[in-house]
Amino acid sequence: MTYKRECVYVRLSLLPNNIRESLYGNNRKEEFVQNFSFIGKDDIIFLPEEKDFESENLLIENKKYDLDFYGMIKETWNKLQQEGIKESQIRSVIDGDIQKYSYNLMNTFIYNSSNQTAYNNIVNDSIATTVKYILQKHDKWSKREGLDKLIKAIALHIQNLIERIKIGNIVKHPNKDEIMKERAYEYNIAKEILSNMSLMYGVEFPEDEAIFLATFLYLSYVGLNEESIAILVIMHGESTASSMVNVANTLLDCNHAVAINMGLEDRVQDILVQAVEIANKIDKGKGILILTDMGSILTFAKVIRDATGKEVKAIDMVSTPIVIEATRKALTPEMTLEKLYFNIIESIKKHYGDMEVTYAEKDNGGRYFDRLLIDNISKTLTFLNGEKAYFILKEVINRISEHYSLVIQDELLVKFYISLFMYD
After folding, report:
1. How far apart are CA 337 and CA 130, in angstroms?
2. pLDDT value, residue 419
3. What are the distances in angstroms from CA 47 to CA 7, 32, 44, 79, 113?
4. What is the pLDDT of residue 253?
5. pTM for the complete prediction?
6. What pLDDT is stored for residue 51 in this prediction?
7. Are 366 and 295 in contact (CB under 8 A)?
8. In 3D, which of 115, 112, 152 has the Cα closest to residue 29?
9. Which end of the chain has the least Cβ crowding within 10 Å, N or C?
10. Phi-psi region of 168 (alpha: psi -120 to 50; beta: other; left: phi over 0)
11. Which CATH superfamily includes the segment(s) 228-352?
12. Which residues form the PTS EIIA type-4 domain (predicted)?
């Protein structure tokens, strides 16, 4: 009603904690999450006059599963190209869609017993056996945790591919030459797999299909990859961080994001000690991104960096969709901490529209919280420049905090300024 929209938008981040926990608790994830397919769907719209939602392909039936996502990829590529988006950015979007596809394949038939039966009815054993034989010949894949899950997903993809080619449904990859150069290793494995399938089933696979499979292999490998950006979610509340992390890990079928719940009675120093310990454990060679709800936690990044020697960045004003996005992108092989940091900041900007957000230092004078302080200081001081006074005094308190190894919370910052101005 506030925005006068025709549709009612319900975001996960707006649901109460108890509802989120009931939907995504460990005891419900196989029963609830794995029965839905969200590939290629940013928004799901329910209309009151429509009672049959099966036409939207939201529910995954036990006996059939539409795996053909090529049309969606082609449509996305053409649309973004027409909008003048850079090719590198388009590829990043397409990679994200393919990664969602691979996660969905891995989740759908493998953990749920009824879906496992459907998988056995759909996929020929010889496909999975051949894929396993080829992947295990390569050091990058052999003896890796989660390989069996990936083998089943690839076998499912190939089974659908064979059926599609038999009826003449052939597609062209929009960026074939670049993929062949940049992902040559995965491309050669894909060619080997499809070559064997050609001999077994008498089906000729176009080169474009090897490109799609190479991208699938490349992006699926992140689930087995040892190096990735660690995600640490720190939120105020007894279970807020855990709920967000549970949602992200469940939807992405991983245990990558880690939560620290900051109870209202917990001391900041105790949480900081806990954060340092966890940072040492979860770092996988590419740094740590802290996601939090309040600006006071942003100072943790420097303290953890100094204590551990690891690269750490922090972003606040974070919601559940942002945690999901950050976790997914953190697992992407080519992602760096710096790139992820600014990528998530851009996502938060889009999420909050024109509103100033307290996530990072900005060119126009800093965080939204900082701007509030500056505005109030300017109203208090009659003959002094409020902005200059703010940054001079901030430098003073930063030196004090560094000298005594203190974490400066926003509440303490407010008291510091108020005390000085009362003295003045």
Report:
1. 37
2. 63
3. 9, 22, 10, 26, 32
4. 64
5. 0.45
6. 52
7. no
8. 112
9. N
10. left
11. Phosphotransferase system, mannose-type IIA component (3.40.50.510)
12. 228-352
pLDDT at 209: 83
Asked if 98 contacts 76 with a C-beta cutoff of 8 angstroms, the reply is no
Chain position carrying tokens 């300017």 = 378
Q: Given this model, what pLDDT does residue 232 score?
A: 97
Q: Read off the tokens for 85.
A: 């988006």
Q: How far apart are CA 142 and CA 20, in angstroms?
A: 37
Amino acid at 66: D
Residue 293 tokens, joined: 């709800």
| Residue 112 to residue 98: CA distance in whole angstroms | 22
**What string of H, E and C letters represents the secondary structure of the chain?**
CCCCCCCCCCCHHHCCHHHHHHHHCCCCHHHHHHHECCCCCCCCCCCCCCCCCHHHCCECCCCCCCCCCHHHHHHHHHHHHHCCCCHHHHHHHHHHHHHHHHHHHHHHCCCCHHHHHHHHHHCCHHHHHHHHHHHHCCCCCCCCCCHHHHHHHHHHHHHHHHHHHHCCCCCCCCCHHHHHHHCHHHHHHHHHHHHHHHHHHCCCCCHHHHHHHHHHHHHHHHHCCCCEEEEEEEEECCCHHHHHHHHHHHHHCCCCCEEEEECCCCCHHHHHHHHHHHHHHHCEEEEEEEEECCHHHHHHHHHHHHHHCCCEEEECCCCHHHHHHHHHHHCCCCCCHHHHHHHHHHHHHHHHCCCCCCCCCCCCCCCHHHHHHHHHHHHHCCCCCHHHHHHHHHHHHHHHHHHHCCCCCHHHHHHHHHHHHHHC
Tokens of 344: 């998530």
User: Per the structure block, which two tokens stand in for 181?
Assistant: 């150069």
Q: Report domain extents, the chain.
A: 36-223, 228-352, 368-423
CA atoms within 13 A on the CB side of 175: 23
